[in-house]
Specification:
273 residues; alpha+beta; 4-stranded antiparallel sheet; 4-stranded mixed sheet; flat
Amino acid sequence: MSQFDLTTVANVKARLGLPSAPTTSDNVLASLVTAASRAIYAALSRTSLLPRAYVDTLDIESERVYLTNWPVLSVSSVTLDGLALPPATAVSTQPFLGYLLQPGDAAPPGRPQALDIFGRRASRRRQGLVVNYQAGYAVEGETWTAPSAAPYLLTAAAPFGVWASDLGVVYASSGLALQAVGGAPAVGQYSVAAGVYRFNATDAGAALALSYGFVPQDLAQAATELAAERFRSADRIGLRSKSLGGQETISYDLSGFSDSVLALIGPYKRTAF
């Protein structure tokens, strides 16, 4: 499976009513999951949904620009005409010099976020602003108490969609990061797979904060529906309709995306701005 897949073979099999046990169709379904996910990314004009680094090189038209990926998690640097700008503080009066990021929405799908430039009049020019930032759908600082009994496991809440990538765990009281490991964790360490975190017995009862990337549930549903429909369509390639005993005619939707899929992905689509 691709790291960019928006759903799983298990989800598609459930949608199709197929057995959950391995079947001869699993490889085909895995390919369809990846193809459906890539088709949705293309329709959204987005390269990724999970947290990752971006660099936007933007034309200067005014003191306000919009970053091309969202939701924005952090901005690491802003350079205007070769001048590095500092972050500004959101106050009632306009900052003397710096940049200020528009806050993002609390829940998906969110919207493109504005970056305001203060203290230097922007002249109209091409590619005058360079912004380095992190963006993607993530839950940051989800608070938990480490389990007090073996096997010391907890499952991320994932309120907006299935857990997809680990962004770290810290002690809530100090902000000190725990170390991610692949095997059994020692004190100050953790392991994670599919949103299930394991801790060491010594950390039992510790206040923790988890951060992780997720796939919004409506996009996962869209990918599931699209992959399932493409699997079923293999039985009717080139067939637009068929008649049942001359009493009933069934017509098939031959569009790239069904109306239900379009409705699910529409709010996430990037448009020109």
